[in-house]
Specification:
The chain is mainly β. The chain has a single domain, classed as hypothetical protein yedk fold, CATH 3.90.1680.10. Helix content is 11%, strand content 29%. Strands 1, 2, 3, 6, 7, 8 and 9 form a seven-stranded mixed β-sheet that branches. It starts with a strand and ends in a 25-residue tail after the last helix. The C terminus is likely disordered.
């Protein structure tokens, strides 16, 4: 699925802002989400997620995960957009809620995270009614999640390895904070003179 929900009634998905988050407080009121909330709830399995915080003029990434190390599901909504020529585009957005006091240090909103005991309840769309799952739409309890700073290598999509989950060392942080050498501006080269047949040496 593509990240960023595209409602089915949109005429051209290239002309809308991608909806990556659905706020739990207004999820049943927004036309973009209310049908998916009733009929197309889904889960994104995860063992953690990243959040960034500005400190000392730099944006520093943090890996946030359950304190007990268990995997969880991010509550999400899915939608399929069908174009005029029958083309299909499957998209998804996660559901967010206000953060608990501890996680609010990093960001005031958090993903709604579900544990395996609530998976079936969240995924059951047979009644076409979202009211039975509304109580699940809340952030984790205080102390349920913990976090640590990681390398800024996570900022580049080309990097995809287990090292991105490890706490950053003092040496790594110093190297990342060190001023980067400035690249020399390319030297301008004058275009070749037009040969006027005079044979000039200059």
């Amino acid at each position: 699925m593509r990240w960023g929900l595209v409602p089915s009634w949109i005429k051209d998905p290239r002309k809308i802002t991608l909806l990556i988050n659905a706020r739990s407080e207004t999820i049943n009121d927004k036309p973009a989400f209310k049908n998916a909330m009733r009929r197309r709830r889904c889960l994104i399995p995860a063992d953690g997620y990243y959040e960034w915080q500005t400190s000392g003029g730099r944006k520093r990434p943090f890996f946030i995960h359950r304190r007990d190390g268990h995997i969880f599901g991010l509550a999400a909504l899915a939608e399929t957009w069908i174009g005029p020529n029958g083309e299909e585009l499957d998209t998804v957005a996660i559901v967010t809620a206000p953060a608990s006091a501890d996680l609010a240090v990093l960001h005031h909103r958090v993903p709604v995270t579900l544990m395996p005991g609530d998976f079936a309840r969240w995924l059951d769309c047979s009644s076409d009614d979202a009211s039975p799952v509304m109580a699940l739409l809340k952030g984790p309890l205080e102390g349920e999640f913990t976090w640590h700073e990681v390398s800024t290598r996570v900022n580049h999509a080309d990097n995809d390895d287990a090292q991105l989950l490890l706490p950053i060392t003092d040496e790594q942080r110093a190297a990342e904070d060190a001023p980067k050498p400035r690249k020399a501006a390319p030297r301008k080269v004058a275009p070749p003179a037009v040969d006027d047949g005079q044979g000039s040496l200059f």
